[in-house]
Design goal:
Layout lengths: L1 H4 L8 H55 E4 L7 E6 L4 E7 L2 E6 L2 E6 L4 E3 L9 E6 L6 E6 L7
Antiparallel strand pairs: 1-2, 2-3, 3-4, 4-5, 6-7, 7-8
Length: 153
């Protein structure tokens, strides 16, 4: 009779199996959550890098055009900048919901992702300074650009 009561089986009890599956499920859920958070952070950084590239592109274009400009033209508003060159040529920047559009002659070029606002400080020499800002809240940035061309038309 003693031999019948003695169990030589090896294996897991039902309770051990349930506990180990619970721990495994918890570890898998935490791993998936970490993966999702990492992907979100990567996506945010890619958007930020893209926006920074667009901001740089816009500033390079503006600085080049302002160096060539003699004056800020009539019709310039918060959403529209008109630059007049020494030869009478006009370069325009228009703010749209998608970004900015630069028009010089018949050539138009879009800079997506940056929606600039233009301001013309009254305390500076008239027609010689343009303040350009973009972004909202903590992401807001602004630069003050000066026309370099001595205003000779």
């Amino acid at each position: 009779m003693r031999s019948l009561l003695r169990c030589t089986c090896r294996g897991l009890t039902l309770m051990e199996l349930v506990v180990s599956m619970g721990i495994g499920t918890l570890a898998l859920a935490l791993g998936l959550q970490l993966y999702a958070k990492t992907q979100q952070a990567i996506d945010r950084q890619q958007v930020r890098a893209s926006r920074l590239g667009s901001e740089t592109d816009l500033l390079l274009l503006l600085r080049r055009d302002l160096r060539m400009a003699a004056a800020v033209g009539r019709g310039s508003t918060a959403d529209h900048l008109v630059l007049v060159g020494t030869d009478g040529s006009r370069t325009q920047y228009r703010s749209t919901p998608e970004g900015a559009v630069r028009t010089a002659g018949r050539e138009a070029m879009a800079v997506e992702g940056v929606r600039p606002r233009f301001r013309y400080p009254a305390d500076r020499r008239s027609g010689r300074v343009v303040e350009v800002s973009w972004g909202e809240g903590a992401a807001r940035a602004a630069v003050v650009l000066h026309l370099r061309n001595e205003g000779k038309l």
